Automatic annotation (TrEMBL):
<dbReference type="GO" id="GO:0005737">
    <property type="term" value="C:cytoplasm"/>
</dbReference>
<dbReference type="InterPro" id="IPR006076">
    <property type="entry name" value="FAD-dep_OxRdtase"/>
</dbReference>
<feature type="domain" description="FAD dependent oxidoreductase">
    <location>
        <begin position="13"/>
        <end position="146"/>
    </location>
</feature>
<protein>
    <submittedName>
        <fullName>FAD dependent oxidoreductase</fullName>
    </submittedName>
</protein>
<dbReference type="InterPro" id="IPR036188">
    <property type="entry name" value="FAD/NAD-bd_sf"/>
</dbReference>
<dbReference type="Pfam" id="PF01266">
    <property type="entry name" value="DAO"/>
</dbReference>
Length: 147
């Protein structure tokens, strides 16, 4: 981008087109702000900031309804960008405490309208043959999204 491609003035400048910058830009646009300039050092879907260094995996299983809703909106934004793969996810519990947490997470996900279920170690092995399930108690699967 050359200097001549930049606008001479704008109402709002957002630096960074990762998850936060893109979400903020979309939210402002939905609220009627039409004078926004979003800039980043690289192209979507990997502009090179902290979002690109993350695992780029959005997992919908949260205990907070607000966080679950934010995750759902983020998923929809990435789907609209065309930088989205619906891949799912599996979390394995190897201790009794881990099992209790999985049950809580699955319960929360279902309560907030997300798809999630508890799986037996045998069911995990059918889905992901390379996972060692010898010491597994159970696992949960949730609709997850890879960006």
């Amino acid at each position: 981008m050359s200097d001549s491609d930049f606008p001479s003035s704008v109402g709002t400048v957002i630096i960074g087109s990762g998850i936060v910058g893109s979400s903020l830009t979309g939210e402002l646009a939905e609220r009627g702000c039409d004078d926004i300039f979003l800039i980043d050092k690289g192209p979507l879907s990997d502009p090179g900031g902290s979002t690109g260094h993350a695992s780029n995996f959005i997992l919908s299983v949260e205990h907070s309804k607000d966080m679950t809703q934010i995750t759902s909106v983020s998923r929809d934004i990435y789907r609209d960008f065309g930088a989205f793969t619906n891949s799912g996810g599996i979390e394995v519990a190897r201790t009794e405490e881990g099992m209790k947490e999985l049950k809580r997470r699955v319960g929360s996900a279902k309560a907030f309208g997300e798809e999630a279920e508890l799986l037996t170690p045998d069911e995990v092995e059918e889905l992901v043959t390379y996972v060692n399930t010898d010491s597994s108690r159970a696992a949960s699967t949730a609709r997850g999204w890879h960006v």
